[in-house]
Amino acid sequence: MKKHDNIVKYLIIGVLSLATFILLVVNACTTLSGFWNVGIGDGIEIFILIFVSFYLVERQNSVDRKKEKINDVISKIQIKVLDPELIVVDSENHKKVTRIKLKSISNLLEIVKDDISNQKIIESIVSEMDSLSAIVMDHIDDVEYIEKSNSEIIRLVTNIDTKLDQIKFDVV
Fold it and tell me: What is the mean pLDDT of each run of 10 residues along the chain (172 residues)?
């Protein structure tokens, strides 16, 4: 789909440029009066406007797509962090799944880390995620400790989610 969109965009800019060029040639060869009478200076301005506007629109579209992708990744992180079964340590299989989920969240944070303008917040999120991982990973075999740490885990998860919402607001 993206390749098709690019072909259409370049076709449109090509047609506009060709039409402007033909108009300039017709005006140079004949004497048209009225609306279609275009001087060489006006024709050059039209070319410049076509290409500058095309460049600016493409650039803004690229920025908007990047912001959209960052928001998508942040939403994925939030879904994973808020999963009620994020930390389940009652069996070996659940412990493995918990490790994988925590690692996945950390990996997603690394993906967006460099693209976030407010580095202070993202570093805070990474730090809290590291704390969450440390609590769980260091004591994954101690179910009682995990249960006693539940309030701390909830606090960290809530802080991470709130800060991710703040980043999503800042990105838009």
Answer: 70 81 73 61 77 81 86 93 90 92 93 87 93 92 90 94 90 61
Cα 23 to Cα 51, 116, 155, distances in angstroms: 17, 47, 68
**d(C-alpha 92, C-alpha 98), whole Å:** 10
Has this prediction a pTM greater than 0.85? no
What is the spatial distance between Cα 37 and Cα 31, in angstroms, rounded to a whole number? 8
Given the structure tokens 């101690």, which residue do they identify?
142
Contact by Cβ (8 Å): 146, 152: no
* SS3 state of residue 37: coil
CB-based contacts of 155-163 (< 8 A; 24+ apart in sequence): 156/128, 156/129, 156/131, 156/132, 157/81, 157/82, 157/86, 157/132, 159/128, 160/81, 160/125, 160/128, 160/129, 160/132, 161/78, 161/81, 161/82, 163/121, 163/124, 163/125, 163/128
Q: Which of 50, 55, 27, 49 is nearest to 40 (CA)?
A: 27
